[in-house]
Amino acid sequence: MKYKVLYIDDETSQNSQAFADGLSSQNLIEIAIKLPTKFEELINELIAEQKDIDALILDLKLDGNQQGNRTATYTAPSLATGIRTKCFAENGFENEFPIFLISSTNNLKKYYDSDTSSHDLFDYTFYKTSIAQKGKEYELLITSITHAYKAIQENKTNFNTLLGLSADSEIPNKVFTTKFLLGDGTSISEISQYIFNEIISKSGVLIDETILAARLGINFNESSDWLSLIENLNDYKYSGIFKDSFNRWWSHDILNWWNSNFPKPLIQLTALDRVNLLKEKFKLDNLVQAQQIHKTTSTKFWTVCQAYKLPLDPKDGFLLDGNLMHPWQDKRYLSLHSILERDAKELGLFIHPAEKERLEDIKQVYK
Questions:
Q1: Alpha-carbon gap, residue 294 to 271, rounded angstroms
Q2: Strand (E) or helix (H) holding 361
């Protein structure tokens, strides 16, 4: 069944249709387009049409077109706030649905990026200029997040089911607070965004393909046997909500798998040792060893440089500045080379203040 998505935009019908077509080329979703109008009038329209809305896409600047019968004097965050407050209200929306933001890069920088208070109103942000290249990826995300909302609606506090875990798994007690576990005062959007942002999008209990490959010592882009190897790890692959958009593996299960197959702990081995053991065990000759980033000393890889997404031993890295991490999440690092070459800075990535003195000392070596 295709999800029904309503797209509200003040662009011309031709432009809006082009964006809608770019976001639905795989026929996974069905997008209808609506022009904005007066705030209360639009909210009432959406409530009346809610049975045909599985998800909503809002253009950031809904007040850009002041011609015609349907015009708006508000922006997407204001409308999203009005919609969220009407969920479960009397004569309001019966169920929550995801809200996506779409805009040009310039408008996002000018009107949205600095307004962090409104960021949790939206489940994901799409860039209009990227739709031609990333439309299929965006469509899959819309489908995946919409499915997550419906799954949470049915299993709000059953996190073992939502995360594809066995009924006796203790992982939910590790990653969710009592508020989530009891469902007290938590909305579907809050649960969905927490799982998406803190469990799926950050390394910790789950790891992505780049970190999996780094921990196995493999350059997966150059290894024709990589897919054959990870077939051996299918039992440890994440199977919960968002699985259709993101390949993830349970980090603890990967370590247990290694320990059951090899005598020496993974973290103690160099990339060459890891690859040689894997080749011998699984008869996969076309696994290529991952190489060091310039200006590093170790191949006992455990993470990746956040600027390059290349394997890195944390002892060669510099702690990344940014959001506070949960105890069960992995720390994130930058490589020295990405810092000295200013590649990290261009991506808006900076080292933690506690690392600055060490960086200055090491810089002296490269003068």
A1: 16
A2: helix 356-363
* Distance separating alpha carbons of residues 218 and 287, to the nearest angstrom: 7
Count the neighbouring beta carbons within 10 Å of the beta carbon of residue 135.
Answer: 18
Residue-wise pLDDT for 120-174, tens only, equals 899 999 999 999 999 999 999 999 999 999 999 999 899 999 999 999 999 999 9
**Of the listed ranges 73-82, 101-110, 246-255, the one predicted with least confidence:** 101-110
Q: Can you give the residue ranges of every domain in the chain? A: 3-153, 156-200, 206-366
Question: What SS3 class is residue 306?
Answer: coil
CA–CA separation, 32 and 71 (whole Å):
18
Q: Check pLDDT > 70 for residue 112.
A: no
Query: CA distances (Å), 42 to each of 35, 46, 69, 80, in order?
Result: 9, 6, 13, 12
Which is it for strands 317-319 and 333-335: parallel, antiparallel or unpaired? antiparallel
**Is the pLDDT assigned to residue 114 strictly greater than 60?**
no
As a whole number, the mean pLDDT across the chain is 93
pLDDT tens for each residue of 1-49 = 799 999 999 877 888 999 999 999 999 999 999 999 999 999 999 999 9
**Region of residue 185 (phi > 0: left; psi between -120 and 50: alpha; otherwise: beta):** left
> Taking residues 263-273, what's their average pLDDT?
97
**Cβ contact 142:29 at 8 Å:** yes
Task: Identify the residue whose tokens are 């203040």.
Answer: 353
CATH number given to 3-153: 3.40.50.2300
Exposure b/e, 104-119, CB count within 10 A at least 16 = b: eeebbeebbeeeeebe
| Separation CA 138–CA 58 (nearest Å) | 14
Asked if residues 332 and 303 have their Cβ atoms less than 8 Å apart, the reply is: yes
